[in-house]
Design brief:
Chain lengths: 305, 768
């Protein structure tokens, strides 16, 4: 068995305690832990203080506030997917939750964890001994990016299944810290470097995902993966077909930041996405095919919208 | 072997095990209720844990090892290096090139270099990271071409005649060139079959326990306790009688646990050095480095055919990339060619293979060892020739089939074959003839056939001893204990032994206790490899059961004054006297008559086949045969291949337990689908394994597994126990070529290099 490294653990009972702990250097929030704990075992980070959200009931559950969906960050993916209101008003979010890993992971993993998911790469998500054999990488214990040795930064891929749909639904992220509550549009959270892809301050904890009343038209989610379950996406796609004939798409798992494109005519959306997409060698499947599949997946998502 | 056939037939008629009774698997309830005990479940007082530090280099000299910092850590007890245990070992006596830990140099990324024993796993692991090893990197051999190159260093420079070619095999039978000259079509083709690994759910594990009298017990997750027993005794310089190897329940092997691993040798060495029990369990990543999986094999095949579809001759060359150590590679080099002509009548055959060393994790036996790759090439090639000549692939296969009693040109004698029935049944069940060439674009159907062995005629070390031994104990409790050195690795061989004994004694398999794989308690069996257990240990069990039954029958005959021949053992009683005698009473009478009851049985394969070259490896007392049809759908835009359904008909001689046989065949098809669509042991150009996890090394999930229709076909092999043959390996041989042929039917392209990833198929479609 792959043993854990040593780590500390706290489970605060109030938000104030949570915010105090979150300001401690080296601390990390653990919700479902389905991605964080394997990474910890891979020694992707050391000397960690894990702060569990499990005692904070207020961070769990789905409510409706003024027509908007408010989902506590620690709500499991299964609870989101099973919520009738989510299914009725924001079906692409339900569909995205249902494609994540396996049903057991969906029962543990949370929506907040998915939104804040670490970027992934074939050269990063590996055990420590393996990484040592390639001298580490830019994102962990090294100085070279093996995906793009001459590139400008880290290209680890944004792999959060729910983000493309949440993006098109106009989701707002509610963060809390000792300084108070702050809301950020999900579309503004992500940066272009795989090491610093999250735009929130280090001590800001995601409390809730607010999804406004769904826009007119339809939003459809698609996931491209090698197998029928378990796998992270090779390509994540959401499209929005608007009533005025225009459309928008978010394609992800290409680089640190999901790619957003719009087209005045929805017929041009797939070509626009294809043009904007630059897959990198972060996955086992080749970049030429994955770029081809951007067009295919957007077209197919539109066909299902 | 099927003497007393009348007894048997009558027992079946009266509801014996083979007549449909006794369905419960002897170890089934323990497995599904979590009561099975695996190595990692074993906990002993004063037990400590071992972990290894692995090489970050593909090929490098070890200049120095400094473990002082690790040894200074609290909880660290011992550091072991290659110098501590220098005896070379390996699966095959003529190619023993391994040490438990790298000695002097490292030969692949992930090779064990230093082993640390500590009070817990975490400490042992952390201590490994504090050992300083200084390397001097060497030019690495990372492809077949590198290995064949004269300009590269030797991976095993210590050998008497160093070479990066472990073994080259050259064989020729008949006159291949003349056969080609007389052919209407001679077609050449090249094929490239990928390497893949086994992915047993349980990782390799060992627990070594030193005893006060100097003896040693080693619990190991192994398929071959007997070979490991010999290896451990030799490597540690102990008398074989002072070493006890026990295989507890294991979480599968698929061929990946046929070797002795560093888990075994290091835990044993450390246990003796520390005088404490030492447990060593691999992490998942380490299983990918231990490997011993399928050799990546490049192949060149030339075949001649008459316009009527008779195969005239085969010329075949294979280059197998074996990784850094020999493992069973010498056997692989033969298996690549030895089954090639079967199941077809081919009188002219030339074969050459190279099994080479490279600086990758070592390859070895994986389900269908060495025969998967050439079978893929041959079955695709047959369809290509049928296409070129406008012939029906079904008819061509039927027309070329060998018959029972046939001896192949390379000396394999085939006592039984029911492949024509297999072909007819899959063709009919799948509606192949109506569908072939007629399905809508993107959909296709394909057929392939294959043959495999039921155990090897020769042990891996030369000897004249039994290959399998079975002892039976029976007393007034009515329970029969079966002692056998076989190693059930989940395939159900324990249940098979119980079936044989129960059927002969007229009791239920669950009336038997199987004590297996304990070298102190159980008679020698060579282990679970080459699909030998049901056939060989089954015959030994039958012999032992017959002898025990004779004891009981003679006692009853004397007491009830009836002829022995009139007694029938069935339904937990003995019939044929003036009243049925309940089993318990029968045993009681026999124990009173003879004293303590017990019997032994053994099996040694007959020496059959005449034309065989003495150096050859591969002849078996019997062969199993398979025909499969695959139906696929190809998404022509994305290149994604879906296997919609597989039909698998397997000639297994005799059905001993329907569900277990079907499960084995489904498992074969499942693994074949993985190799066809998803799996590849892939390395970066510097030798780094790119996917050493079960997240990124993708085996099929339930969603990726097609519906599988299994059709069991019986040929009643004259040497098989109750006529049975193997069912756990052979059926995998047909799966990938059936899918490859279906793919051609779907998209009109021959894809000669699985796995059929969407990217590859998309490129093939684009190139059309």
């Amino acid at each position: 068995m792959l043993p854990f490294p040593k780590f500390s653990y706290e489970a605060p009972g109030t938000l104030d305690e949570l915010f105090t702990l979150a300001s401690v250097s080296g601390s990390r929030i653990v919700a479902g832990g389905t991605d964080l704990l394997p990474s910890l075992k891979h020694r992707l980070f050391q000397d960690t203080l894990l702060i569990s959200l499990r005692r904070l009931r207020e961070l769990r559950g789905v409510t409706i506030e003024g027509g908007a969906l408010v989902i506590g960050a620690n709500t499991t993916l299964r609870d989101v997917a099973r919520d009738d209101r989510v299914a009725a008003g924001w079906p692409a979010l339900r569909d995205a939750c249902r494609t994540i890993a396996t049903s057991t992971i969906q029962a543990m993993g949370t929506l907040g964890g998915n939104v804040m998911l670490d970027t992934r790469c074939l050269y990063y998500n590996q055990p420590d001994g393996w990484r040592a054999s390639i001298g580490g990488c830019l994102k962990a214990d090294g100085s070279v990016c093996h995906v793009a040795p001459n590139g400008a930064g880290c290209y680890a891929a944004h792999s959060a299944d729910t983000v493309p749909a949440l993006w098109l639904y106009g989701a707002i992220l509610r963060f809390g810290s000792e300084r108070g509550i702050r809301e950020v549009a999900l579309a503004d959270l992500y940066g272009t470097d795989g090491r610093t892809w999250l735009g929130n301050a280090r001590d800001e904890v995601l409390l809730a995902i607010v999804v406004p009343k769904a826009p007119a038209g339809s939003v459809v989610h698609r996931k491209l993966r090698a197998r029928g379950a378990i796998d992270y996406g090779m390509l994540l796609t959401a499209v929005h077909r608007r009533p005025d004939g225009s459309g928008a798409a978010v394609v992800s798992a290409l680089g640190p930041r999901p790619v957003f494109v719009e087209a005045e005519r929805v017929e041009d959306l797939a070509a626009a996405a294809h043009k904007a997409a630059t897959p990198m060698r972060t996955h086992a499947y080749g970049v030429g095919w994955r770029k081809h599949m951007v067009r295919v997946e957007v077209e197919r998502a539109l066909a299902g919208s | 072997m099927t003497d007393d056939r009348d007894f048997h037939v009558r027992a079946v008629a009266e509801g014996g095990v083979l007549g449909g009774g006794g369905r419960g698997k002897v170890d089934g309830l323990a497995k599904i209720t979590g009561r099975s005990v695996f190595v990692d479940d074993l906990v002993l007082p004063r037990m400590v844990y071992a972990k290894v530090l692995r090489s970050p280099h593909a090929h490098a000299k070890i200049l120095s090892i400094d473990a002082s910092e690790a040894l200074a850590m609290p909880g660290v007890l011992k550091v072991m290096t290659g110098e501590d245990c220098t005896a070379r070992y390996g699966a095959i006596p003529v190619a023993q090139d391994e040490t438990a830990l790298a000695l002097g140099k490292v030969r692949y990324i992930g090779e064990p270099v230093v082993c640390v024993a500590a009070v817990d796993e975490e400490t042992a692991r952390d201590a490994c990271r504090r050992v300083r090893v200084v390397y001097e990197p060497l030019d690495a051999i990372l492809s077949i071409d590198d290995a064949l190159s004269a300009d590269k260093p030797f991976i095993h420079e210590w050998a008497r005649k160093p070479s990066n070619i472990l073994r080259k095999v050259d064989q020729e039978y008949g006159d291949v060139d003349a056969a080609f000259a007389a052919s209407d079509l001679v077609l050449e083709g090249t094929y490239d079959y990928p390497g893949s690994t086994h992915v047993p759910l349980e990782t390799h594990a060992a627990l070594a326990v030193p005893h006060a009298d100097g003896r040693l017990t080693l619990w190991s997750s192994t398929q071959n306790p007997h070979y490991m027993h010999r290896t451990i005794a030799r490597v540690l310089g102990m008398r074989p009688g002072d070493v006890r190897v026990i295989k507890p329940d294991i979480g599968a092997g698929y061929g990946g646990k046929c070797d002795t691993f560093c888990t075994d040798v290091c835990s044993a060495w450390l246990a003796r050095a520390l005088d404490r029990p030492v447990k060593f369990v691999f992490e998942r990543e380490e299983v990918f480095y231990a490997h011993r999986g399928r050799h990546r094999t490049k192949m060149w095949l030339k075949m001649g055919m008459t316009k009527e579809g008779r195969v005239t001759g085969i010329d075949f060359k294979a280059w197998a990339e074996g990784g850094a150590y020999a493992s069973y590679g010498v056997v692989t080099s033969f298996y690549l060619g030895v089954f090639m002509t079967m199941p077809y009548k081919v009188e002219n055959y030339r074969f050459q293979s190279h099994r080479v060393y490279t600086n990758h994790p070592p390859c070895g036996p994986k389900r269908g060892h060495g025969a998967i790759q050439p079978r893929f090439a041959l079955e695709l090639h047959l369809d290509r020739m049928c296409e070129a000549l406008g012939l029906d692939p079904v008819q061509v296969r039927l027309d070329n089939l060998i018959e029972a009693g046939h001896e192949t040109v390379n000396g394999l004698l085939v006592p039984s074959i029911a492949l024509s029935e297999c072909i007819e049944r899959v063709v009919q069940a799948s509606d192949y003839r109506a569908k072939k060439g007629s399905l809508p674009p993107g959909r296709g159907i394909g057929l392939a056939c294959s043959a495999y062995m039921c155990g090897a005629l020769h042990a891996v070390y030369d000897n004249d001893l039994p290959h399998s031994g079975v002892q039976l104990k029976c007393d007034r409790s009515g329970r029969v204990t079966i002692f056998s050195g076989t190693a059930d690795c989940g395939q159900g061989s324990n249940h098979m032994l119980a079936v044989f004994v129960a059927e002969r004694l007229g009791i239920d398999p669950t009336d038997c206790t199987v004590v297996e794989a304990d070298t102190d308690l159980t008679p020698v069996d060579l282990g679970s490899y080459s699909s030998r257990v049901t056939f060989m240990a089954g015959n030994a069990a039958l012999q032992a059961a017959d002898r025990l039954r004779s004891q009981i029958a003679s006692a009853l005959a004397a007491k009830f004054k009836v002829p022995v021949e009139s007694l029938v053992f069935a339904g937990r009683e003995v019939r044929g006297a003036w009243r049925p005698i309940p089993w318990l009473e029968a045993v009681d009478i026999a124990e009173g008559h003879h004293g303590t009851l017990g019997s032994v049985g053994s099996y040694k394969p007959p020496k059959i086949g005449s034309r065989l070259k003495r150096t050859s490896v591969g002849p078996s007392p019997a062969y199993s045969f398979t025909a499969q049809v695959a139906e696929v759908t190809v998404d022509q835009v994305s290149g994604v291949v879906t296997v919609d359904k597989m039909w698998a008909a397997h000639d297994l001689g005799r059905v001993l337990h329907r569900e277990i046989a079907e499960g084995q065949i489904e498992g074969c098809v499942y693994m074949g689908v993985g190799e066809a669509l998803l799996e590849e042991q892939a390395y970066r150009k510097d030798g780094v394994h790119m996917t050493p996890s079960i997240l990124e090394y993708r085996i099929p999930t339930v969603y990726d597994t097609p519906e599988i229709q299994v059709l069991l076909v019986e040929s009643h092999d004259p040497g098989g126990p109750f006529g049975a043959k193997e069912a756990g390996e052979g059926p995998q041989l047909s799966t990938v070529p059936a899918i490859g042929n279906a793919l051609h039917d779907a998209i009109g392209r021959w894809l000669t290099n699985p796995p059929y990833t969407p990217e590859k198929v998309w490129k093939a479609i684009k190139g059309r």
